[in-house]
Amino acid sequence: MTPPPGRHLPIVAATPFPRAAAGALRDTQLRATLGRATRTIRDKRAAVVAEVPDWERLRERAARVKEDVIDRLPELVDQFARAATAAGASVHHAADAAAANALVTELVRARGVDRVVKVKSMATQEIGLNEALAAAGVTAVETDLAELIVQLADDTPSHILVPAIHYHRGQIRELFARRMPGFSADSDDPAVLAGAAREYLRRTFLSARVAVCGANFAVAETGSLVVVESEGNGRMCLTLPDTLIAVVGVEKLLPRFTDLGDFLRLLPRSSTGERMNPYTSIVTGVTPGDGPRRLHVVLLDNGRRRIAADPVGRAALRCIRCSACLNVCPVYERVGGHAYGSVYPGPIGAILSPQLTGQDAGHNATLPYASTLCGACYDVCPVKIDIPAILVHLRQTGPKPAAERAAMAWLAWTMRDRRRWRAALRTARSGGRPLRVLTRRHGGRLRRAPWPLSAWTAHRDAPLPAGESFRDWWRRTHDR
Amino acid sequence: MTAELSALFAARAGDYRAGVHPCTPAELPDLLATLLAGATAVVLPAGTPPQWTARLGPPTLPGDTLTATELDAPGLAVLTGCALAVAETGTLVLDGGPAQGRRLLTLVPDHHVCVVRAAQIVADVPDLVRALPDPTRPVTMISGPSATSDIELSRVEGVHGPRRLDIVCLPPA
């Protein structure tokens, strides 16, 4: 039997989250690096968000616009395609990762090149485009500094915005010395390291003929793509090569050009903690004499319309990939991005990956449990995605072990009837009596139980049934 | 109002470690000459007002025909105007109009000098997207010199775009 499409994608966890997290937690260096980085970005975000007096209204407006987009996806896809085509772009539609990869590979081959330069893009990460291009003999050069670090290290990204957040400067210097031809600096000053990346990529940019990018927003009204970045590598890719291929998830659409006003205020402040990122490019079709002569836009579905049909889960499609939820998450901060086994880590990844693939893919059904449900992610989300509510929804609808299902069925049967429930409590009390004696030292809490209860006590103490129920106590003290 | 926006724009652009230079129209030719004195040559897009270049020392190059490789020559600087600017975020907005040229002119050279007139400054990004004369032209929004936060999330200036950005602000008429 052939596996369903998409099961091999870089959004499928190969290891159950608890096991991956336990491994990551043993890496104290990782925890120190992540703790420092997330603290820095949290403080910066808080400062620039506090500057905006109507931040809450801004979030609400943005959430409403995105809900409207999710409601009208097919209509807006058509509108975008018409406008972009009229402006000189070629628009393609890809139902899934395989279709998108095949399309892009074909477009690259048609230009007769064996190398493309890339702007950092989550959509191309999600579909594993670099791997697909490599299989066709095409090298994809990542030009974002963090992506370049991850690529040079043969590693996988661990953060949406800063894929190399798990590296500290010393590790990066050592990596450049090993893998970057011509690198000789013995300093680990970030400015020196960034300068080395500039030198290294300059010739590649100047000779590139095809670039691949994503988009932060796609405007249906005008057919425009918006690319938000910092380093200028995006502008290099958008302007120097003569062919540009953009892979854009359909949820990136915005109805009107003026909608960008709110979203361009929300994204940089939530993402890098800046009032505005250094460079934002808006590209509409082809402009004679300026930039690429060919623009292809691949509109990617890959499960998005299916998610749009789930009344609770669909809010995940509002996401603008700012990564603020990662930076505030107590779980992410401690385990890092690799534990989630997907290019979408953290709270948003925990609701996005299982929905994109279906919960039966790999161990993605364990991801909705990668949370304490503390709600910090909801508080910072610029488009007000109630991530904890979707986590609970996915827990409720996800697959359960047979033992858990049987236990819950028995519990439901018992609790449906007053006599059965009282009898069960009585049995539990008398059964717990010897345990209470044994656990007196630990305050009457069970710290380690045999299987299958060990699944509970591995992470928390189990309270024992009280010696006397409330009803019995009331009867003894009041009902004389 | 315009004076307040100018002051806010200058302060916010300065926060990104761009050089910000308020000046009067009379001082402009000398100020531009000083800022561009160290360049090997100055690239000029079509439509650059003649008074901007009146006192320039280095030779000038017309921007419309230069290739990316030519623009990568060491020591090159580019002098442009802009379409609009945003006070709240200290952002320059270029759309390929007069005195702005193709997008790569403000990308490949290592030093960008941009002249902003007070009347071009809008309050915030929502005002900007409403004020853009034609949103389907290639739009580039520039907020400070090229930068990255990819190493330990601490911001450093100077990656692929110009490492030096000077903004010259002309007062309200």
From TrEMBL, chain A:
Which GO-annotated molecular functions does the record name?
4 iron, 4 sulfur cluster binding; metal ion binding
Name the SUPFAM superfamilies on file: 4Fe-4S ferredoxins, NagB/RpiA/CoA transferase-like
Please report the name of this protein according to its UniProt entry: (4Fe-4S)-binding protein
Q: The organism sits in which domain of life?
A: Bacteria
Domain LUD stretches: 78-300
Report the coiled-coil segments.
none
The segment(s) forming the Lactate utilization protein B C-terminal domain are 396-477
Q: Key word Transport present in the record?
A: yes
Q: What is the lineage of its organism?
A: Bacteria, Bacillati, Actinomycetota, Actinomycetes, Micromonosporales
Is Repeat a UniProt keyword of this protein? yes
Instruction: Tell me the InterPro entries matching this sequence.
Output: 4Fe4S_Fe-S-bd (IPR017896), 4Fe4S_Fe_S_CS (IPR017900), FTHF_cligase-like_sf (IPR024185), Helical_ferredxn (IPR009051), LUD_dom (IPR003741), LutB/LldF (IPR004452), LutB_C (IPR024569), NagB/RpiA_transferase-like (IPR037171)
Q: Where is the 4Fe-4S ferredoxin-type domain?
A: 316-385
Tell me which UniProt keywords the record has, alphabetically.
4Fe-4S, Electron transport, Iron, Iron-sulfur, Metal-binding, Repeat, Transport
Q: Which GO terms describe its biological process?
A: lactate metabolic process
Which Gene3D superfamilies does this entry report, sorted A to Z? Answer: Alpha-helical ferredoxin (1.10.1060.10), NagB/RpiA/CoA transferase-like (3.40.50.10420)
From TrEMBL, chain B:
Q: Which domain of life is it from?
A: Bacteria
Which segments constitute the LUD domain?
78-168
UniProt xrefs under InterPro entries: FTHF_cligase-like_sf (IPR024185), LUD_dom (IPR003741), NagB/RpiA_transferase-like (IPR037171)
One Pfam entry for this protein is: LUD_dom
Signal sequence range: none
- What's this protein's name? Lactate utilization protein C
Lineage, broadest ranks: Bacteria, Bacillati, Actinomycetota, Actinomycetes, Micromonosporales
